[in-house]
Amino acid sequence: MKKYREKNKEKIKIQGAKGSGKYFIRNHATLDDLEDFENLIEERKKSFKKGLTIYQY
Q: The whole model's pTM is what?
């Protein structure tokens, strides 16, 4: 397992962030938080449609 973590640091980082996000949404998010996330998701989708894979502010 140690070798896997060493070779896949970025993948593990992304998986952790994804899990934290899901946990927050399921267990702690308020209606305002969810609306903020919806806006962020829409902006992110637009950036993908423009061909941008990294979010740019």
A: 0.73
